[in-house]
Amino acid sequence: MPIRTVLVLLLVTVGLTLGPVAQAEPLVLQLTVASDINPATASYISRGIDAARRRDAAMVLIKLDTPGGQMISMRQIISDILHSPIPVGVWVAPEGARAASAGTFIIYAAHVSAMAPSTTIGAAHPVMITGGMPGAEPSEGAAKQLETLTEKIVNDAVSQIRGLADKRGRNAEWAERAIRESITATASEAVEQGVVDFIAATADQFAEQAAGRTVETPAGEVTLKTSGARIESVEMSWRESLLSVLAHPNVAYLLLIIGFYGIIFELKVPGIGGAGVVGLICLILGLYGLSVLPFNFAGLVLIVAGVAMLIAELYTPTYGVLGVGGLAAFVIGSLILMESPATPVSRPLILGVAVATGGFFLLALGAIVKGQRRPLAIGIGALPGTTGTVRQRLDPNGLVHVDGAVWSATCEGEPIEVGEEIVVTEELPHMRLKVQRKE
Asked: Distance between CA 203 and CA 115 in Å, rounded?
């Protein structure tokens, strides 16, 4: 028998023995979005789609629970889904979740969509950004311009979501009503009205029900082979997680306030260093978070102006004039800082910060007034010989803490550093002290 024939028979025998080659298990990459739609979310979804393409996944599954978010980030996500060569499924979950506002658009952009029981979708009316005072009535001309602008934005949103509905074969009329009338639907209603494809309680159920469907991608028609798929979660990177946290309005606002407080404390009690460093870091992080939010520049300016007036009150006491004006500017700026009602700063948080700030500066003002009146109670000439500590470096002028109060002071000779002990040698005019280093 020829050698070639023997080899062929051997290969056939081995093939029959081993049986058919096992098929590779299909892979589904799951992304979890449980926050507002922001640049961190958009970056996360874009990275997940790229990872699915590199790993030749059968599908990207976005588990969605969002109140809405920024239109720019929403459009980026929609663009990534529409240009993805890997089919993208969007699943509103877990139970109790919602796909409101921007989430509705993302559902309509998906190749396959589903909702878990007890979830909702809709209320997609665009929120206008005005920058005015809360509750203030605009002028007739401004109201007309606002109405025109609102109409343009709503019409643009309707056009976009109807286009997505036509592309994915979903209910365009319901989508338009979700924008114009802010209607919502439960999971069962959404399936009945052709808003989503089916109801799925788990990711595995989603993969099973999506299997066999044919969807259109830039690479052509793709039949989903997700039955029995291995579902692998892709988590946010540390950078995306940090940006997502910083992009929360309350977090950005608190970081700003902590930053201002740290800097104020450093200016009032110089030489410590830690408060200034912490304040500067918090201020930078707060501004970074603010940069990805739809904030009102006038609100930020008012907050800064308010803080500046409060600082001025500490150094040039006006018996409350600058303090009251600064606190008023601070509160007004806080109220209008976030332009979109979809991403507001908590009113109780603003109230708490305002009360704490007002209380702090009332105490500081009281201490200043008490310090100014104190010499009248103890009498002129009572301080020489009293010891104290340096609060601000004497070179030769600075601040010292003597007899329970902070005084302007001067020294002769070498500078005296912060924390060193001093002795008062003389009381000078204008409530200043002459001191020397304690031997």
From this structure: 10
417 — phi, psi (to 5°)?
A: -85, 165
Query: Hey, what are 130's tokens?
Result: 């005005």
Residue 13 lies in a domain: no
Q: Does 187 lie in the same domain as 110? A: yes
Alpha carbon dihedral 319, 324, 325, 329, in 10-degree steps, equals 150
b (16+ CB within 10 A) / e for 270-306: beeeebbebbeebbebbbebbebbbbbebbbebbebb
Answer for the pair 241, 248: CB distance below 8 angstroms, yes or no: no
pLDDT reported for residue 19: 43
Q: What is d(CA 277, CA 111) in angstroms, rounded to the nearest whole number?
A: 49
Cut 0.85: pTM above it: no
- Check residue 250 and give its pLDDT: 86
Contacts of 69 (CB under 8 A, 6+ apart): 36, 37, 38, 41, 101, 102, 342, 343
Cα 261 → chain centroid: 21
User: Is 211 in the same domain as 313?
Assistant: no
pLDDT of residue 289: 83
Give exposure, 344-375, as e/b (b: 16+ Cβ within 10 Å).
Answer: bbeeebbeebbeebbeebeebbeebeebeebb
Q: Summarize pLDDT for 274-331 with one digit per residue, the tens.
A: 777 888 889 888 888 887 777 788 888 888 888 888 777 766 656 667 878 888 888 8
Residues 34 and 79 in one domain: yes
Distance CA(367)–CA(374), nearest Å, equals: 10
Ranges in the chain, pLDDT < 50: 6-8, 11-12, 14-22, 129-136, 375-380
Residue 88 belongs to domain with CATH number: 3.90.226.10
Structural domains counted in the chain: 3
Containing domain of residue 420, as a range?
387-437
